[in-house]
Amino acid sequence: MCSCEAKTHQCLLELPKCEHHLHIEGSLSPSLLFRLAAVNNISLPKSEDDSSFASAEALESRYERFTSLNDFLHYYFIGMSVLITPSDFESLAYEYFTRAHKDGVHHAEIFFDPQAHTSRGISYATVVSGLVAAQARAEKEFGLTSKLILCFLRHLSAEDAEVTYQEATSLGHFSNGTVAGIGLDSSEVGFPPEIFRETYESAAAAGIRRTAHAGEEGDSTYISRALDICKTERIDHGIRLVDDENLLKKVAKDKTLVTMCPLSNVRLRCVTKVGELPIRKFLDEGVRFSINSDDPAYFGGYIQDNYCAVQESFVLSLKDWKFIAEGSIEGSWCDAERKKVLLEKVEAWALSWNGTL
Ligand code: HPA
Ligand code: ZN
């Protein structure tokens, strides 16, 4: 749990949260990674090649020194190689939901990367069955609702993405709600969203929700191309929106949700500190955004840590936080009934903390 001593910690902890930008494979802690590697007999890089894997502690400290998105992705893809069985995926996701619940998350929309598993012989069905089992447990035990977002790896081809999309479609996973939407992640620069235009067009025609990472390391044209060409309904990261005033105004007007990940942006050196992020600008311009953890096991913080880091840098008011919380709910892909329940929780929170921030 976020251990900061700020007076606002408890207030923000109790704020009902939605998380929209969480790669479930990025919640694999070094300790679980080493445990599963032992159980599943997976060999990790030997010390001569990379001493980062000498121990969980060595790995934690390597995670503090990422130099870029690609540097992180190298470790991210090695890490997930220990996930083999449905029960591994269930443990991973259940661990995340347990932690998210403690951090005040009531609704989570989580990314998963099927191609990173099918490419090493783990079936799509194995991955999804484990995640679905964890979702059911989290809803039953914590009342935490969730959705799955299938991400395509943009460093792989459009054809590869389409094969994955067709597999999920043929299993009825989009039509029966097992998977709520599609996303696009991995290395951004050099892999613009329009590469995947055809798959996004099919998804739009079928009424499947759509998002994409854009404007994390890539410039603001990655954002405009995701919106204009791939017709995404959300933008993940989107921090470069600040470089295009007209685009920013359009995103605000259209109420497009931007899923921000402050601690991730610092760890991957997209900004030097949280205070550099355009959070005040987004609030002033009425951009709808949520605050998320991205890959919490790699970036040194879960969602509450991200909330507290934002508060420390921007000293937001109760009104600002209410705007963020309400926008996060409105921009969620849950049904209207669930949104109403969540909005009432935020209203009750604002009443009970009135005068605090
Ligand atoms: N950016 C792009 N791809 C990713 C990330 C990220 O922050 N995390 C996991 N895959
Ligand atoms: Zn991400």
TrEMBL record:
EC nos: 3.5.4.2
Note on cofactor: Binds 1 zinc ion per subunit.
Top-level division of the source organism's lineage: Eukaryota
Residues the UniProt record annotates as site (Important for catalytic activity): 237
InterPro entries: A/AMP_deam_AS, A_deaminase_dom, ADE, Ado/ade_deaminase, Metal_Hydrolase
Cofactor(s) needed by this chain: Zn(2+)
One GO molecular-function entry: adenine deaminase activity
Similarity remark: Belongs to the metallo-dependent hydrolases superfamily. Adenosine and AMP deaminases family. Adenine deaminase type 2 subfamily.
Protein's recorded name: Adenine deaminase
Originating organism: Lachnellula suecica
